[in-house]
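re the bet — no i am not wrong, look at it urself. input seq straight from the record:
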Amino acid sequence: MKPNEREPGHGPATGSAHRATAPNPRLRAMLEGPVARTVLTLAWPNILMMIAQSSTGLIESWFVARLGTDTLAGTALVLPLLMLMQNMSQGAMGGGISSAIARALGADRKAEADRYVLHALVLNIVLGVVFSVAELAAARWLYPLLGGKGASLHAALAYSNVIFCGITLMWVMNAFASAIRGTGNMLVPGLVICGGAFFLIPLSPCLIFGIGPFPKLGIAGAGYALLLYYGVGAAILGQYCLSGRNPARLRRGRLAWPMFRNILVVGGMATINSLQTNVMIALSTALVGAYAGTAAVAGYGTGARLEYFIAPLAFGIGAPLVAMVGSNIGAKQPERALRVAMVGGGLAFALAETIGLVVAIWPHAWLGLFSHDPKMLAAGTVYLRSVGPFYGFFGMGWSLYFASQGAGRLKWPLLSGFFRLLLTVGGGWIALRLTGSLVAFFAVAGAAMFLYGVVIVIATLSGTWFRNTPAPMRHIGTSSISVASER
């Protein structure tokens, strides 16, 4: 426990010194404003942004489905890797970036917040290049392991080779977006990404089908359109950070390992969560393919796309929680930080559960958008009816995972994710071996999703954020950096 910090339940520690010097209205609102109203005010542009971003992927899938079931199955093989990059750059490392900047601003250390922007950019460029090289080298043996063969494997390689040649652009765009969100500004990233959706939706079919002056590139055209979207978004958000309009500004300066470490302590641990989720879906895809064939992979992949839609919506609420929890931790207001987390978790539960129940009752309303193949519809229907009723617990768990990033405490979210992975894949494999039934497999997946959310809620309410003594303050030049984190 830091000096002057109190355990929840014993009254909030005094944060008046920080509030008095809060340099912008957003920071004052995060430290002082009504919790529910402030969360909603910060969340709505972020939710709108994530709906737009997720919708582009769904609309692209609709276009791709016109190329046939094999092509749709090929994109389902690539989807876990693409979403892994999205989750790592935006939710994991992005949370580490936003958390570091929010805590610095909450503690009234503006110069330190500026330096984090440069470190975030350099770190994400390096990570983007590393993952680009790794995926391109592994693609030809990885997709067959996931069940790709024949035409579906050819489609997967054509799609992924284009995307992963330029995936660093996604990492750069999300570095700048996360630096802006860390100041409590959700509107600018939201506007840029929503604008990008209007750019991407007409561009993608033009490149896929060769409409007008554009060449007919097939599935590769969807990849090229996505890279153009990332590049334009990175340029606009980067200019915003350079201009000085963002409270944390991109400036030239010396790089220092302790600043990288403070981002990585949160972002690196959060990356494990993204790996767990995407490894789970990739292995589940492989199991479905082994037991039920290509059409079932397409059905499960289409159903699982909705989970990838729920996760960004949870991020829409979770990103403001990173900034709000981080700034209140920096301002020594732990009780308020915990209240912010629980309000955000409740909002995420309500939103995700509503979607889950709708698709469980009317699964063909979703699946029929992509294909009418009977086997595809049958597998997707079983998945949505088994797992959809538990989406609320998934959304709540994800939002509290982001809140835990703001606090720099990720032990229980990561353990919960590991339990979910183990139960879904291990328990699901046993269910398939014993019954050979997708119904049993997806029932296990639904139970694992329920436990994931419940464990995180119980751990957060128990006060795990405040039990261990954080590491001491470290100094870089004249800037002090809090490295409160759970190891």
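see?? The beta strands are 474-476, 479-481. told u. also The two ends are 15 Å apart (CA to CA). so pay up
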